[in-house]
Design goal:
6% of the residues lie in helices and 37% in strands. It is mainly beta.
Length: 298
Amino acid sequence: MKITWSVLILTLILSACTSPAPVATPTLAPDPSTKRSGSYFGEPLPGDEPVQFGKGFLNGSYHSSPVFSPDGNTAWWAGSFSSATIYTSQVVDGHWSKPGKIEFSDEIKSYRDPFISPDGSKFYFITTAALPGESSGGKENIWMMEKQGDDWGEPQPLPDVVNALKLHWTVSVANNLNLYFSAEDRGKADIYLSRYVNGNYQEPVLLDAPINTDTIEFTPNIAPDESYILFSRLADNNSPAYLYISYATEAGWSEPQKVENVTNCISPIITPDRQYLLYMDGPSILYWRDTSFIEALQ
């Protein structure tokens, strides 16, 4: 039975510098029960029909699909919304480690919706942690870490001009580090763009129609070269979420087209090799398929 997103979406919509010290990336042990090896947890690679992803290896509820490092050897994903936890698995001695929780700072206990830049240099996530100088948190904000050798720098929040908006779920960045995210600032979720100019994120702008409409648009995933954008769209809070794709043209974004055989989609993620689409089919299940639809629908 398909799991609709109405309760989850409605709840989320309504809820809504010093030198960083390196944060060591933990080394996890291979999972002796599976000894999984190969790309993407050793899953059989899909074709153009969606199939379940991670069954028997990934367990529990999800708030975002897995994102992989550029070399494909590390993955991160968010647990259920209430858990406020990011999980990770990495290739150790040729096999994928047993998934485990990860924290990037002693000061931050809430983690959601990770995303890594295409070049692997920056890591973004969402947290309700208190902003610097504040005594308490509560509102979701976007934070970022920068790669320092094999480790990550201390997380820092994005500028206030970005985090002034409500409800970020999820984020995506292009090669040029332009940031695409969904936020609720008009009574419903829409997709915004904050350009990265001279090392700073600019005031977010609402993407024009036909991306944003009177319906709900959220969880964008931008192509590294910004040639297309994937996102989820719901007609209303009682409807399933469908996957749409729009292409960049000289006149602006093209009319979004529905990916017909992806019938319930949240948090679309394209793998680093651009060959596969991962997405949440429900709060407790992941699916994937190949990306042949990207060329077919253009």
